[in-house]
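Re-run with default settings, no changes from the original entry. Doing this only to confirm the output is reproducible before filing.
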Amino acid sequence: MFPRRWARGRDSRDGSTGGSAACVAMTANQRPDTWFRATRPVWMAVIAAGMGSSGWVVISPATIPYDYLGPLGTFTHYLVENHKLWLKVGYGIAWLIHISEALYALKLCRDKGITDPLTQFRWAVQTLLFGIASLYYLLSYKPPRKKSQ
């Protein structure tokens, strides 16, 4: 009924178990210094829509079709008319948080042995755009232990 990748329990292809631990497992052919995992598309869409609509409200509120948005339009129009400063402050804080998360992602990359500059750049940009939805994978990543000789 469901595709194999959605099944719970053991997955015969990679030997991992279902759940969050399987989300951050490395594939067999991936090097630890280039490990990258893309954010799930649903989170990308939700966060992009939220940041995009917030930006639209803050930057160009006169172009929003409030009448076509129903109760959300009424509420948004109320916020624009009565709390414009707080909308701007909140939007600025949201971007500051995303910037801070992106810088932290760069630090985590170095701490976890992800040394490839392109991979670090990918983590930083993805975390800048999608915040904690991206940073979650990097926080959960456990690099392979170095073998002692």
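The helical segments are 20-23, 41-59, 71-82, 84-111, 117-130, 132-140. Residues 40-140 form one domain.
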